[in-house]
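Late entry, evening session. Most of the bench is empty. Finally got around to the prediction I had been postponing all week. Sequence below, unchanged from the version circulated by S.P.
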Amino acid sequence: MSDVKDILDSILSDEKLLGSRAFRDKVYTDQPIIKRASQIKTSGTPQKIKEMKALAYTPEAYWKTSAWLFYTQGKFMEDYTDVYDFGGELVKFYPTYRDLDTEQLCGYFSWRRQVREGVFPYAPKSFIYMHAYEMINGIGIDSPESGIKRLRQLAAVYGADDPELTRHLNRWAVDLCVYEELDPALVSDIPELVYDHALVKLTEWETTPDEELFSAISTLCGYPFERSRYYISDPDGFREAAVRVFRSISAFFRSHRKNPLCEKLFGRRTEMNCKLFELAVFYDRQPSRSTDYELDPIHTYTCRNGVWRCSRYYGNRTRNQQLGEMMRTLDCQLRERCDFRYKLRPGEVSKTITDLIKKELDALEAEKNRKKAMNIEIDLSKIAGIRAAADVTRDKLIVDEEPESCAAPDTAADRGNEAVPQDAAASPGKTLSPAPEPVTEPAPDNAAASPLTANEKVFLQALLSGGDWASAAREVGEMPSLLADSINEKLFDFFGDTVIDCSADVPGIIEDYADELQEYV
């Protein structure tokens, strides 16, 4: 202490210093101009923060890692809150509690309190990263799922204008899902997983439905055909052609090339060592674990004694330019075939790819032409006229016949005028009787010529009268559906339409034909 006093006295008694402007023009009160550190008053440091800082100087902290210290201090402070208006900036790489002074710590814990309450005010980026470290270390959350949710919130709020921050937060959310072996659905909409899901659809092109396959092509294609003039004019036609072309090229590569199409476009799936939570402060609480985890069918992880390996496609995980060139060439070909007003330069693809695209479009066009030729269109507005004409034709065909007499000839002369068979005339001694003539019974005026069997008439009558058609079918020993089909088939020539509706489980008479059907039973 005496040494300090001697130094102060020496400084204060220096004549040169006393004669300087710093001392000459000022009046001093009865207090020392230079103070000891103990005499300097500072704002009070919260007791909790003092205790947290002290953890960095424990014997254990000297040989433990910085990640361990961050985890230990974080668990100690996970319930701490503060109210402090921190208006400063903070730029730290891999920020931890140990790197922040008291004012910055008060500002961080005040900001964290608001975030936990659902309010997201402005904050230095270091605050955001440090809070993300808390999430992946399980500090201040009730479950790993909550940690993933908070990471997604930070990315949505603070990463809108910061792609790098968004990329880190999304990557750590996926790693947390892997580390805790959670449901992959928690992170399925993160771009990395969206890419994987689309790639799975392309690799399984033989079994993937057309709609899903086209969606995958759209997700991974480097050519934005959604903005193409041709696509906008005929989206359905483009979708159908794109799916068929992709299947055709994939089949060609499978049969004629060493590697499949998806390997040519996206590379080969490879297994490599990996580090979870890269570029973050993370303390591994399970350093010797062993596990297997599948994020999706083409993105899996294994861990053996704490060493992680990842199997996935490690290529450029952005929109694929080679696939884009294929779709651009398809767009060009479609425009040429329909003489589209706006032409397009084809993509840079091989002659083989171009020929495959042309061949598939030829086959597609031929199929459409066959379907068009086989298509039969029925104009329902003309059915009434056809039916009326059929009624007229039917009435003309139904005429009353005059009954013939059954009496035998009265005179021999009359009998002599009858034709005699040649063999009878040549055979004397045989007497021939005249052949009896058929007896016809006149039909009533209102009866129609019915092609229906007795069983069909019974069934039809039950339908017309609203009776028990099922019992009627049982009585005649036939199935209702077969009876209905047979009646429809036999009466189609008369009505030009089905008369019994069998679309539902219960057959029913079509009301327009009810009156006319009475004539057929």
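Two things to note before I forget:
Residues 245 and 357 are 6 Å apart (CA to CA).
The mean pLDDT is 83.
Will write this up properly tomorrow.
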